[in-house]
Amino acid sequence: MHYKYEAMTSSGQEVVDTVEANSHEEAISIIRGRGEYPTKIKASMTKEATQRVVKQTKRPSVLTVILLFAIVVMAYAFIQMTGVLK
């Protein structure tokens, strides 16, 4: 898993980088092994994993969009006819 992190060096320089590790604790250990002191660390997906998730995400069908639109139009017409919001 990838971890994005921010850290400080012993000279006070700010570092923003990524590290590959199996766990949060391992990521901290690797960062400290580089002589850096992590201030923020967050798990993140690789670019390839993100693209797989995007490809697997289904868009609503045209029929679903049309039905939702019809419901909204009918609700608006009902509100106008009954004066519910006046």
| Low-confidence sequence ranges | none
Number of helices: 3
> How confident is the prediction overall: mean pLDDT?
88
What about the largest sheet?
Answer: 3 strands, antiparallel
Class inferred from helices and paired strands: alpha+beta
Instruction: Please tell me how large the radius of gyration is.
Output: 25 Å
Fraction of residues in helix: 40-55%
Following the backbone from N to C, one meets helices and strands in this order, namely EEHEHH
What is the quaternary state of this protein?
single chain
Q: First CA to last CA: what distance?
A: 56 Å
Strand order in the sheet with the most strands = 2-1-3
Shape category: elongated
The number of distinct β-strands equals: 3
Proportion of strand residues: 25-35%
Please give a quick description of this structure:
With 86 residues, this protein is of the alpha+beta class. The protein is 48% helix and 28% strand.
Label this structure with key terms.
three-stranded antiparallel beta sheet, 86 residues, alpha+beta, elongated, 3 strands, single chain
Would you kindly provide a written description of the structure presented here, covering whatever features stand out?
The protein has 86 residues and is of the alpha+beta class. It has a domain at 1-44. Helix content is 48%, strand content 28%. It has helices spanning 24-33, 47-56, 62-82; strands at 2-9, 14-20, 36-44. A three-stranded antiparallel beta sheet has the order 2-1-3, with helices on one face. The longest helix is centred in the last third of the chain and has 21 residues, at 62-82. The chain is elongated. The model has no long low-confidence stretch (mean pLDDT 88).
